[in-house]
């Protein structure tokens, strides 16, 4: 497959795309990002990579980080994680309190905010230096020791923490948060603030390309095959909140979005791909990013289905 040619065709096709999305402003620091930024990077399992636009510009990965923190938690605790978090799509907004109350403090899946907060709680309990150890894990799988937290974004999120604090306190009341609430929030906001570019993200996500043999990081077989399989399934069914079905229908790949405008998707045994375009649709997913990935699987005629 000539992916370079495919990406150029996509670039030409989206030149006239009318982007009606809006940059996230509920985290004020994210609202400062240039809405015209656009980058794509595709990393193949044969080691070849293809970039387009601002693919080497770093941005806050936000909820994309939930996949990486989950991977680390599963490496450390295995099936124990699923005693505290479900694996079903939510069908509700990613920060819903109503669903969490109804289900007695057990988040529907690890990719809604409540689920990621429980994962954060698990990592705080298991890691000796939680923030440092998570960042080192991400650096290792990204093959880049320059990856850092964006402290301004983390501080901006802490300043406007109220909904996430409500979720965490509610789960604490149900006994599903073990550590201090502010410690969990601090870890979670730092996790979401991680700044990476499209190329680094595609490298990091090679650990999910199934399974060991196609992992391009130096930490060979970073994930057991069964864990990569389970996380891919969750990305397909839950990676885009209440738009996960639409993404599966139009794109047909496991993936995860973030309100920083990034989306990572992958085709097991073939490639990982990251797109960045800050303006979001009404569901909190990059409007242009969704379109680019739909065009990618349409033009290549390759998806998981």
Automatic annotation (TrEMBL):
Substrate binds at residues 63, 113, 157, 164, 188, 241, 259. The keyword Acetylation applies. The keyword rRNA-binding does not apply. Keywords: Acetylation, Hydrolase. GO terms for molecular function: glutaminase activity. One of its GO terms (biological process) is glutamate biosynthetic process. It catalyses: L-glutamine + H2O = L-glutamate + NH4(+). It is an enzyme of class 3 (hydrolase). Its EC number is 3.5.1.2. InterPro entries: Beta-lactam/transpept-like, Glutaminase. Belongs to the glutaminase family. Homotetramer. NCBIfam families: Gln_ase, PRK00971.1-1, PRK00971.1-2. This is Glutaminase. It comes from Leeuwenhoekiella marinoflava. The lineage of its organism: Bacteria, Pseudomonadati, Bacteroidota, Flavobacteriia, Flavobacteriales. The gene is glsA.
């Amino acid at each position: 497959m000539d992916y370079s040619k495919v990406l150029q065709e996509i670039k030409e096709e989206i030149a006239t795309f009318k982007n009606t999305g809006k940059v996230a402003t509920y985290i004020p620091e994210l609202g400062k990002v240039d809405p015209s930024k656009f980058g794509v990077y595709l990393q193949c399992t044969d080691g070849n990579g293809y970039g387009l636009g601002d693919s080497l510009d770093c941005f806050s990965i936000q909820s994309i980080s939930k996949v990486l923190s989950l991977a680390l938690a599963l490496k450390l605790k295995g099936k124990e994680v699923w005693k505290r978090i479900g694996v079903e799509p939510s069908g509700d907004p990613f920060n819903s309190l109503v669903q969490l109350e109804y289900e007695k403090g057990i988040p529907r899946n690890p990719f809604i905010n409540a689920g990621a907060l429980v994962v954060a709680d698990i990592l705080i309990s298991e890691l000796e230096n939680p923030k440092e150890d998570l960042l080192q894990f991400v650096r290792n799988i990204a093959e880049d020791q320059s990856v850092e937290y964006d402290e301004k974004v983390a501080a901006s999120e802490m300043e406007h923490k109220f909904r996430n604090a409500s979720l965490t306190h509610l789960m604490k009341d149900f006994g599903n948060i073990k550590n201090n609430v502010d410690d969990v929030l601090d870890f979670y906001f730092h996790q979401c603030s991680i700044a990476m570019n499209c190329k680094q993200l595609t490298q990091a996500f090679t650990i999910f390309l199934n399974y060991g043999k196609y992992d391009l990081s130096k930490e060979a077989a970073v994930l057991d095959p069964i864990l990569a399989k389970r996380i891919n399934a969750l990305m397909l069914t839950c990676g885009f909140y209440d738009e996960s079905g639409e993404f599966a229908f139009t794109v047909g790949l496991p993936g995860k979005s973030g309100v920083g405008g990034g989306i990572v998707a992958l085709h097991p045994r073939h490639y990982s791909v990251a797109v960045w375009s800050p303006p979001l649709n009404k569901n909190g997913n990059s409007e242009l990013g969704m379109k680019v990935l739909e065009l990618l699987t349409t033009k290549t005629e390759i998806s998981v289905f």
